[in-house]
Design goal:
With 93 residues, this protein is an all-alpha fold. Helices cover 56% and strands 0% of the residues. The longest helix is centred in the C-terminal third of the chain and has 28 residues, at 56-83. It has a domain at 26-83. The protein has three helices and no strands.
């Protein structure tokens, strides 16, 4: 005969594990925007710029100016992403 009582020990429950929070650092955001810009124009525009600039120095100057603008844009997106992390950054802005 088994003696069963209503005071059985409660089953051990595992602590709830939270899902990892998605997060981008400033470096991540800068690299994403820079990659998008480089991927979009690296193969199609150099011959056009070389033909229109007239010299190698002007071509590299235009390339460096574009790189500076890309960096500024990437830093702006990084700022938006850090200011509004739950509101989708530029969508909220």
């Amino acid at each position: 005969m088994s003696a069963t009582t209503g005071s059985a020990a409660p089953a051990a429950t595992a602590p709830a594990v939270a899902a990892p929070r998605p997060a981008l650092s400033v470096f991540d955001a800068v690299m994403i925007i820079t990659g998008i810009i480089i991927g979009g124009g690296i193969f199609s525009f150099p011959p056009l710029v070389a033909g229109m600039s007239g010299s190698v120095e002007w071509m590299f100057g235009a390339w460096l100016a574009g790189a500076a603008l890309a960096l500024i844009g990437a830093l702006c997106y990084a700022e938006l992403a850090t200011d509004f992390p739950k509101a989708e950054g530029d969508y909220h802005f």
